[in-house]
Specification:
By secondary structure, the chain is mainly alpha-helical. It has one domain.
Length: 258
């Protein structure tokens, strides 16, 4: 039951964000969007440290002074993995006109959804690997910390759902269709979580690498996308403050409930 809840919570966050299309006329307020971007970035960085890197280091503690190796290697592979996806998959980020990845004739709508999909994969993996670690009896990973991570990512997904649905409606798409596409943009996340849960039981010896891999992938997304988007144009102090609040809140929840 708890595993199912942990897997579905981030998807619910995406769906609630997409639901905003029925309540917002035109584009989302720039200040609110920047605050959400900053807050989501803070939550994801804190989750990467306390929910992923910290247990990865503890799991490798028997290696002594070399305990950092699994975390360092896994983190860099995670960064490289998302960099590879970013370079290969044609996509476009909200607020930009230039496409990234290989050239294609995909519609702008498709490219926007692919941009969200790229970082939904590591987010789903992050939830899946922490849930799997808790379910398979690892004493260093608790179900409560897994649920906190799921809630933290759901907050970030709330923004993603709205970033897909609201602009699509502003460009002329009907509200129901824009909502549906916003919801569908988050489908890959529970799939990635479930696949990770199924795989971890077979690769428990390299659990520290997988935890750090997920952390590296999430940090890449924050640095490459969330922070730059939050610092565009004016009101750059708002996302910075929101980042700090999100980071501290996620840290408190993760440490207090672990």
């Amino acid at each position: 039951m708890i595993v199912a809840l942990g897997v579905i919570i981030p998807f619910v966050g995406t769906s609630l964000g997409a639901l905003l299309v029925f309540f917002i006329k035109g584009k989302m307020n720039e200040k609110i969007e920047k605050i959400l971007l900053g807050f989501a970035g803070g939550v994801m960085v804190a989750a990467s440290i306390w929910s992923l890197i910290d247990p990865a280091l503890e799991l490798s503690s028997e290696m002594g002074k070399w305990a950092f190796v699994p975390s360092a290697v896994g983190f860099l592979i995670g960064v490289g993995f998302i960099l590879l996806l970013d370079s290969m998959i044609p996509h476009i980020h909200q607020g930009r006109e230039d496409s990234e990845g290989v050239k294609s004739n995909f519609r702008k709508t498709t490219k926007m959804m692919l941009a969200v999909t790229i970082h939904n994969i590591p987010e789903g993996m992050s939830v899946g690997v922490v849930l799997a670690g808790a379910v398979y009896g690892n004493s260093l990973i608790s179900l409560s910390s897994a649920l906190v991570l799921a809630i933290g990512i759901a907050v970030q997904n709330f923004l993603e759902g709205s970033v897909i649905s609201v602009p699509l409606y502003a460009e002329g798409m009907s509200k129901p269709k824009a909502f549906l596409l916003g919801v569908l943009s988050g489908v890959v996340e529970p799939i990635a979580a479930l696949l990770t849960i199924l795989c971890v039981q077979f690769i428990t010896p390299i659990l520290p690498y997988i935890l750090a891999f997920a952390a590296g992938a999430m940090v890449y997304v924050v640095v490459e996308e969330l922070i730059p988007e939050s610092q565009m144009h004016s009101h750059t102090n708002l996302p910075t403050i929101a980042f700090s609040i999100g980071f501290v809140l996620m840290m408190i929840l993760d440490v207090a409930l672990s």
